Amino acid sequence: MRAPRTLVSYVVREVLLYTLLGLAAITVILVTRNLVRALDEVAGAGFLFSDLLTVLRLLGTMLFIYALPVAFLFGILLAIGRMAADVEITAMRACGIGLRTLTVPIVLVGALLSLVTLRLSLDVEPAARREMRSALKEMLARGAAIEPGRFARVGERLLYVEERDRESRLRGIVIADRTDPERPFIVFARSGALRLDEERGRLLLGLESGDIHIEGANGDEERYERIAFEHFEYAIDIGSALDQGLEPRPKEMSLRQLYATIARISEGDTSNLREEPQQYPLHLHRRLAAPLAPTLFALVGVPLGMRRTRGARSLGVLWCAALAFFYYLIDGLGEFLCLQGWVAPWVAPQLPNLAFAGLGAWLLVRARRAGM
């Protein structure tokens, strides 16, 4: 029997409504969980509100690729489960509308979301990760991690700033540098400004009107020196914080960079890599495999949701959590097997897809035999 357009529209609308609710909740949970980790990279002492908004925006963009498939599964299980609990599915079957009529439009929506996820996976998420890295460097360069009135550790130095104006100029600066135990020194300056020398991996602090107090080794007062200055450029090596001289992480690479790095690895050149060589082809194939998740979640979610049970909403949440955990558990297992050299990089990301394709086919056949 051909599905009435009104019925298809109703089912799809219900699924999308619950999907949007789930998407909002899951995104908030993921962003909140990863926010502290992101801030810790630069904010040892302080953080500006504008920086917080930037990090939140970029985190939301980066995590959307993971939140969207799970939210769609959430929407299917709750919408179809609610319809089954309210006997709407039974009424549809009485009118000659079966499993296929309900499954096809939802799978088509899943396929559409898979295309959206493919776009996110190939371009949007890596671009957001690169922008996040650039934003963190910019925050570090203008002293976002320095909170006036508190001591902050920048690299291996201890830095104190009395105040910072709107133009990010610093006033009342104290620097305690004990990187050389033989000649520790303290710098006092009336004002200064921070800038980043990204090419050399240095944080440059242009100081004005101050003194340098150089102590003798082991407190030797005879070697104590005091040097007054009007202008002094103090450099802090932060090459390790900026990953100086290393390739970007595979998650941050554009497709062109990823292909070029994989070609270089295949020629035997593994210099300046951030991660294991297997990670690069593995991540490339993961970008292509991950977008299949919404479509496969539709194949699994529809027959599961059609079971008429009490507490359909709470049961749907549990099923969603269990299935998402199962999917990403297999994904992590595939990565482990790949890094151990037991499976090829193009096989590992497809393991959760193959598992869910088989599970979906089995559930659909079982539901059809049960007369759903």
Q: What does this protein structure show overall?
A:
There is one protein chain. It is built from nine helices and six strands, in the order ααααββββββααααα. With 372 residues, the chain is α+β, with helices and mostly antiparallel strands. The protein folds into two domains: 5-140 and 249-369, no CATH class; 156-237, no CATH class. It has a six-stranded antiparallel β-sheet with strand order 1-2-3-4-5-6. A hairpin with a 4-residue loop joins strand 2 and strand 3 (169-177). The protein is elongated. 33% of the residues are buried.
Distance between the termini: 15 Å
Q: What strand line-up does the widest sheet have?
A: 1-2-3-4-5-6
Low-confidence residue ranges: 42-46
The structural domain count equals: 2
Order of helices and strands: HHHHEEEEEEHHHHH
Descriptors:
alpha+beta; 9 helices; 372 residues
Give a brief description.
The protein has 372 residues and is α+β, with helices and mostly antiparallel strands. It has nine helices and six strands; from the N terminus they run ααααββββββααααα.
Blueprint (SSEs and pairs):
Layout: H1 5-40, H2 49-85, H3 88-94, H4 99-141, E1 151-154, E2 157-164, E3 169-177, E4 185-197, E5 202-214, E6 225-237, H5 255-266, H6 279-289, H7 293-305, H8 312-339, H9 351-369
Antiparallel strand pairs: 1-2, 2-3, 3-4, 4-5, 5-6
Helix pairs in contact: 1-2, 1-4, 2-4, 2-7, 2-8, 4-7, 7-9, 8-9
